[in-house]
Specification:
mainly alpha; elongated; about 170 residues; 2 domains; 2 helices
Length: about 170
């Protein structure tokens, strides 16, 4: 490798130093002042903008934020009112439906109750006709009917028993 050659080491180092010295002088003389000026102007502009725009931006931002917040609060309030009205309407409909259904069921109950009372009355009347003993005992006419009823029932039973024994 020629870089490690001892004979050519010194000339390489010499040219290296000369090249970077000229490069450094060119940078310091030409480019660094321009870059420094650009940074200075930029910093000045930023400070002016920061002072002016910070207060203006803050006011603008706070105004916009308040406007957006009030607008969202109004929209939310309107939505809540609308939902509340819708809920009230639905509850009214459900209440009417429930009242209608309850009234229908109550009417059916009343009709069934009346029918049951009529059935009980008819049954009581029929029981008085079929079972005379069920009526009051103070009436001698009822006692005679009761005696006749039991006599007939006893005779039927005896006749059935006697016919069964004859068949065997």
């Amino acid at each position: 490798m020629p870089q490690l050659d001892i004979v050519s080491y010194f000339p390489q180092f010499f040219w290296f130093c000369i090249f970077f010295t000229f490069f450094y002088i060119t940078l310091v003389q030409n480019y660094l002042p321009k870059i420094t000026r650009i940074f200075a102007v930029r910093e000045a502009v930023q400070q002016n903008n920061t002072e002016d725009s910070t207060s203006n931006e803050f006011v603008d931002l706070s105004t916009k934020t308040q406007h957006v917040f009030s607008k969202s609060v109004q929209q939310t309030k309107q939505n809540c009112i609308q939902q509340f009205q819708t809920t009230q309407e639905l509850l009214g409909i459900q209440k009417d439906t429930l009242n209608k259904h309850t009234n229908q069921v109550f009417q059916k109950y009343q009709n069934k109750k009346i029918q049951l009372n009529m059935t009980v009355k008819q049954t009581m009347q029929q029981m008085q006709d079929v079972l005379p003993l069920y009526t009051t005992r103070a009436n001698p006419m009822n006692q005679t009917k009761t005696a006749q009823f039991f006599y007939k029932a006893l005779m039927k039973k005896v006749m059935n028993a006697s016919t069964k024994t004859k068949l065997k």
